[in-house]
Amino acid sequence: MIREGGQACTMVVRTTHWVVPHYWVWGLPFFLFYSTRASQFLHDRPNQSFIKTFFCLLFSLLRAIVSKFIESYVMWKLPLEKYGLKPDHSFEEDYASCQMAIMPDNFFEEADKGMIRFKKTSKWCFYDQGIEFEDGTTLEADVVIFATGYDGKKKLKAIVPEPFRSWLEFPCGVMPLYRGTIHPLIPNMGFVGYVQSNSNLHTSELRSLWLSRLVDGKFKLPSKEKMLDQFSKEMDVMRRSSRFYKRHCISTFSIQHADDMCNDMGLNPRRKSNLFLEAFSPYGSQDYRLNQEERN
C-alpha cells in the first residue's frame, strides 16, 4: 500500500514470472488444476510405472492446455503486456518451480497512477546517486530495498562444519534431501522447510511429524544409495517440468510425496472420506490430523 502523497518507486525486474490476482481462474477454483490427485495424475512423478509414463506423454497436450487456460485468464485480468511483465515461459514452469505469486491488492492501480514503475534488466550496480543499469541508464534513489529472497544454502554452509559442508550440494548442485528432510551423507541432522511445495506450511508440518517418528525409531531409513536414487528420480521429474528445477520444488507431485511419508510412518495415505473427495479435493494440513489409533 502506497501512502497518500508518497513518492513513486521503481521495481527492478530481473526475471519475469507468472502472477495471479487470486485463487480463481475463469470462475473455477485454482486447486482443481494442480492440487488434487486427479490433476496431479497428469504430471510426471518419481518411481512411476511405464504405463504411467506413457499416460503422461499422452496428457502432455492437456497439461499445455491447462497452462494456457490459466495464462489467458491472467493476461485478461492483469496488464502484464502493458508493463512488459509477461514471462517468456509457460505458467506450468513457474508452478512446477514454486515461483507463482499472488499479486497484492491495488498493485497495478498504483502502477497506472505512475506510483510504481518498472525496469527490466539482468544486471545493475550502484553509483554515487543511485543505481546504474546495464544499458547505461541510471536511476536516482534515496532507498534501495533488496526483495530478492535469500540463499538458504549460504546460511546452511555457515552452520554445517566440514567435511559435511562440502557435501551439502553433492552430487548435482542441489541438496539431495530424502523425503525433503534427510541428507544421506550428513548424519544426525534433519532439514525441515528447505524443499518447497505448493503449500510450505502444510508440507513442513508433515515432514516434522515424519522426522519425529524417525527419531522415535518408528521406522528406519533405507540405504544411502537408495535415498540418493530417490532424490535423483525427483530431480529428473523437476528437470522435465521446469527450467528453474534447481529451486527444488515438489508442487506437481506433492500428494505422492505426502503418500510416501505416510507409508513410511505406517499411516493410511488416503485421507479423504470418499473416493470423489479423494480424487477432486485438495489436500491440506487438516487431512493429516492423526486419530487416536494413529497417535499410538
From TrEMBL:
Q: Which EC number(s) are documented for this chain?
A: 1.-.-.-
Give one GO term, molecular function aspect.
Answer: flavin adenine dinucleotide binding
Q: What class of enzyme is it?
A: oxidoreductase
Ribosomal protein in keyword set: no
Q: Which cofactor does it need?
A: FAD
- Which terms are listed as keywords in the entry? FAD, Flavoprotein, Membrane, Monooxygenase, Oxidoreductase, Transmembrane, Transmembrane helix
Question: Matching Pfam families, A to Z?
Answer: FMO-like
Segments passing through the bilayer: 23-42, 54-76
**PANTHER family (UniProt xref):** DIMETHYLANILINE MONOOXYGENASE
Regarding protein family, the annotation reads:
Belongs to the FMO family.
What is the protein name given in its UniProt record? Flavin-containing monooxygenase
**The species this protein was found in:** Brassica carinata
